[in-house]
Amino acid sequence: MPTTFSPVYRAASAADVPAIVALVESAYRGESGQRGWTTETHLLDGQRTDAANVEELIARAGSLVLLAERDGVLVGCCHVEQQGDHGYFGMFAVSPELQMAGLGRALLAEAERIAREQWQLAAMRMSVIEQRAELIAWYERRGYRLTGETGAFPYGQPRFGIPRRDDLRFVYMSKPLQEVAA
To answer: Is the pTM of this model over 0.90?
Structure first.
């Protein structure tokens, strides 16, 4: 169903950290995450992020934690970071009650717009857990392509979650943001 509202976007501040952590955890972990389609509970237990991680992302140079709000309430967030000539997209979360309403698509488009127009970056990259086929397909419908690169899952580092299986790894995806001159 199409979104029935236009979110208000803004950069996160340190005061937003508790709300960001709560939103990310609700979208990916536990019972609330199972209401939306982004849950990772079949792959991971434990936390998805924590206050220290979010604080560091907000404070880091060349980094933006972008918030989407409706009526002053946080309903979506993502992290975008400048890495050379491309942006890196991560920590993407939409309130489970609002998933499938177009908010995620709109938030991703806003992050891409910032990377393209404000930072003049050539492409956006991201990593996705390989076993998240539905999520990979969602990004592919938005123009992202698998790069063929893979990365190890950080086993033994519970701040990234506690794996339920021993075959997790990341795949990398990329999307051009600038028109290529002919």
So the answer is: no
